[in-house]
Amino acid sequence: MALRFAILTAGNIASHMAGTIGQMRGEGIVPYAVAARDLARAQAFAEKYGVEKAYGSYEEAFADPDADIVYVGSPHSHHYAQVKAALEHGKHVLCEKPLAPNAALAAELFGLAEEKGLLLTEATWTRYLPYVPALQACLRSGAIGAVRGMVCTFGSAVTHRERMLKPELAGGALLDLGIYPLTMAAIAFGQDVASLTGACTKTDLGVDGQIAVSLAFAGGQVASLLSSMYLPLANEAVIWGDEGRITVPEFWRGQGFTLTKADGESEEHPFPFDYTGYEYEVRSAARAIREGKCECPELPHAESLRILRQMDALRAQWGIRYPFETA
Q: How far apart are CA 175 and CA 77, in angstroms?
């Protein structure tokens, strides 16, 4: 049975998703509808990507009985309301990261999805990429000896984007960029975090412009993470063991990694995309729906919430609250 996607917004990330889904028709994945606040923009998007229906409001997409799953590609300040509306209309949901600006709102959404027996999963695409289980197996195997630490950076000059700057849009580096290094630390070292501390520099409007985060894990590993909305950083992860290191270039969209032994000998582990990299989260969501599950094994609800709680804790350290957050 075909799985018909309704795509919310006609922006950049939605374009990537539409282009991906359009290549997956042979897998029973259909780019069925697109919804934007401007009908003409939705129609132009639909024509470009071969989408069957175009809507000038999100509500029309939610109400369409033939749409099976909604992909939410809007700014994350809008995720909560749009995901909730989609679930209340009986739609499965694949939502861009972060699922909500804080853990409390995300927990409410997960509870609603489970109550209704619907899939809700966060599209932190790194979690679904094929290099990830291979990397984890490599770390477990002792290929670089005892794993001790990681340095991970992710930054881009994106201060021209309104959503990055405004507190009312849950702006700042942490939710948009910092979530990726936090995710990478969890992929490499697991869930048992012993301590989490961070520092940030704030913009004139009071959101975090760049951040430095330090984590210590119960297994003895440490992670040093840097994210910035000002700087085009190296955007790689390097994991160190006492017998070598693993380097993951462009880790958030990685297509492989390099293992370098202490003697300098190195080996490549390539995992090229089938299409764009988004296909893996789409496949996982489709499998979960067909199996009657409410979450994807690559990123269970509890893990999404754990990362959101880390970001909540960091913002609390920095005294950053968004205007819409209540006490």
A: 10
202 included as an active-site residue: no
Q: Give the CA count within 13 Å in the CB-facing half-sphere of 60.
A: 14
Residues 72, 95 contacting (CB under 8 angstroms): yes
Beta strands 147-155 and 256-261: pairing type? unpaired
Closest CA to 240 of 154, 153, 146, 136: 146
Distance in angstroms (rounded) separating the CA atoms of residues 148 and 150 = 7
Q: Over the stretch 96-146, which tens digit does the pLDDT of each residue have?
A: 999 999 999 999 999 999 999 999 999 999 999 999 999 999 999 999 999
Q: Which tokens in the block code for residue 62?
A: 């939610």
Pairwise CA distance, residues 161 & 297, whole Å:
33
- Give the SS3 label for residue 296: strand
Q: pLDDT tens digits for 205-232? A: 999 999 999 999 999 999 999 999 999 9
Q: Which of 84, 97, 116, 202 is catalytic?
A: 97
3-state SS of 126-167 is HHHCCHHHHHHHHHHHCCCCCEEEEEEEEECCCCCCHHHHCH
DSSP letters for 15-26: HHHHHHHTT-GG
Q: What is the dihedral of CA 188, 171, 109, 86, to 10 degrees?
A: -120
